[in-house]
Amino acid sequence: MEPQGAWREAGPVGGPVAPRVRAVEFVRRMRGASQPCLLRCEDGASYVVKFQNNPQHARVLANEMLASRLAQLVLLPVAAPAFVEVSRQLIRNNLHLAFEVGDRREPVVPGLHFGSRFPGIPSETLVVDFLPDRLLRRVQDLHDVFLGTFVFDKWTCNCDGRQVIFHRPANGDGSAYSVALIDHGFCFNDGDWTFPDSPIRGIYPRRLVYEKVRGLESFEPLLSRIEDLTPGELEACTRGIPPEWCEPDPAPLGRLVETLYDRRRKLRQAIIDTKNCSLSPFPNWE
Question: At a CB cut-off of 8 Å and minimum separation 6, what does 12 contact?
């Protein structure tokens, strides 16, 4: 397994680079409304793959790639993104590479799809999406990750509940879990690419992750990292996103990045608005 941070290859303007890999083996279907699959690829890694013609929206793929790269840019522990090429032959040889739409099955289309790297070898890695409090408190960098993620979800207007996975070696009984951000398809409001902000949006339901919040300074350094981003760094995060991932019109992708740049300076007030909302998620704010 690559160490965290190995994704930060040098790109033309220093932005995160997502590899292009070819899928060679179907592993299993995964949960989720977009009906993703776990595929092993030619680089030896496995990826959770969302497909262009998924039942949700083609822009889910663009959202996943852009948001994952943005998370990498500000040093959040996100599942590493990739462009995954799925061939006609692989689809033809695997009946599971199809969507269940009502009472019919629709095959996956061949071409480039979005993949998020599985954190290790599937048979040797324990991955869960829920931990009891006693184990959640032991997650590596728990508070830094979740406070940073809250700011990130405010910035990108993630209109879904925050999804993460906790992982450790399957034979590592007693070892602490690591956390990785996943599932960014509803950032930027799904296929609408709008920002319907709300003070209660972006709050993780397990409030113990916010126990150390004392004020705005608790959200550093992530808050300043986002505020200090340049237009070139944001634009680099769209590099290589195929037009077909942006249907019906790829042109708004540029405007989306411009909006993200403008939103950086609104984050402090957004955090204060959440602090003052009826849910009171930060009880220790001084």
Answer: 236, 239
Bridge partner residues of 115 (DSSP): 49, 82
Q: Which residues does 172 contact at the CB level (< 8 Å), separation at least 6?
A: 126
Of 242, 276, 282, the residue nearest 62 (C-alpha): 242
- Alpha carbons 153 and 160: distance in angstroms, whole number: 9
Backbone dihedral angles phi then psi of residue 153, each to the nearest 5 degrees: -70, -30
Contacts with 280 (C-beta within 8 Å, 6 or more apart), sequence order: none
- Do residues 181 and 168 make contact, with C-beta atoms less than 8 angstroms apart? no
User: How buried is residue 129: exposed, middle or buried, by Cβ count under 10 Å (0-12/13-18/19+)?
Assistant: exposed
Give one word for 118, left, alpha or beta, with left for phi > 0 and alpha for psi -120 to 50. beta
Residue 127: strand, helix, or coil: strand
| Residue of 133, 182, 131, 128 lying closest to 160 (CA atoms) | 182
Q: Is pLDDT at 13 greater than 50 in this prediction?
A: no
Average pLDDT over residues 9-33: 80
Q: Where are the beta strands (DSSP E) in 136-210?
A: 163-169, 178-182
φ/ψ of 118, rounded to 5, equals: -70, 140
User: Angle of helix 252-263 relative to helix 142-156, nearest 10 degrees?
Assistant: 120
Q: Is the pLDDT of residue 2 over 70?
A: no
C-beta separation of 89 from 170 below 8 A: no
Long-range contacts of residues 41-47, Cβ cutoff 8 Å, at least 24 apart: 41/82, 41/84, 41/115, 43/19, 45/21, 45/117, 45/118, 46/117, 46/118, 46/121, 46/122, 47/21, 47/23, 47/82, 47/84, 47/115, 47/116, 47/117, 47/118
Q: Count CB neighbours of 18 within 10 A.
A: 26
Model's pTM, two decimal places? 0.93
* pLDDT value for 200: 96
Count Cβ atoms below 10 Å from residue 122 Cβ, excluding itself. Answer: 14
275, β-bridge pairs: none
